[in-house]
């Protein structure tokens, strides 16, 4: 039975009006979307690296105008370094244990020592990172990870012969260390150049050992925490009178270095945004999981198996594995370094590597620990 004609027409009119209204709104929305897309389509595409570079440029200008950086006197750590000159190892009755040595699992150094390394995460000993810098090649040796069998765009160095080859960098030369095993000249991520904005003299495909010195006497949690040279950060709140009261074990408990070795790749799937704070610890990525711990000294090209560092004993926690990291991660690190109150420009390039330390100068107190994220 059909409904009366008089009942049907009002309902049909109401539905028609609603449909027309909906279509009108949809048309307006579509028009607005089209206009927005057209406007955005006329804008040049900005890559993440371009956006990062623009931000960095803006912040650099802001730093130049900031009152926080107007006076060098505000840096309370400037000049805090306690000077202990290198000494001929042969002239020392009992040389302090040296770094960097062999960190291969199972290795034990040949120097008997009474001091034990700090095996806890450094923050649990009130230490904070006071600097970050890196060396060309690895100063430490980990068989199968960074050793004489690794490779890079300029080859490697042999073992047990000591490093004797040099790699030019911005008109200078620095002695290099060992290489990792990741490099593959047929893979473009190891050979495609990167447009460096902030780091100096760096190269895709190369191996670098990054060091994060930590100290319980640093200006932890303040704008003066990060310092170049790193000695200013290590000794910021420790004068010579106080230092002279410390036993060797006290020093090893309160001063330490994180060491981690990387091969640089031009591949954003290996990007890590914050290399300032210390060793990267990530269980899923296998980073910072197999740690060699021992007491040693400061390193660098001014020390050797004849010339010993007197900054000893300090704890070393070194990742035994080599990891790939994107060039952009390093460039972001260099940018972050530029943003610190202290001028860290002397650490924006790779430093020279110390030759591998002989067994008789390496402490026999090796410990191993698995750190978890």
Question: What report would you give on this structure?
Answer:
The chain is α+β, with helices and mostly antiparallel strands and 373 residues long. Helix content is 22%, strand content 17%. The strands form four sheets. Strands 2, 3, 8, 9, 10, 12 and 13 form a seven-stranded mixed β-sheet that branches. It is globular. The termini are far apart. The N terminus is likely disordered.
SSE succession: HHEEEEEEEEHHHEEEEHE
Strand count, sense and barrel status of the largest sheet are: 7 strands, mixed
Rounded mean pLDDT score: 85
**Low-confidence spans: pLDDT under 50, at least 5 residues?**
1-55, 161-171
Helix- and strand-based class?
Answer: alpha+beta
Computed Rg = 28 Å
Q: How many helix segments?
A: 6
Q: Percent of residues in helical segments?
A: 10-25%
Q: Report the count of strand segments.
A: 13
How much β-strand is present in the residues?
15-25%
| Silhouette | globular
Distance between the termini: 75 Å
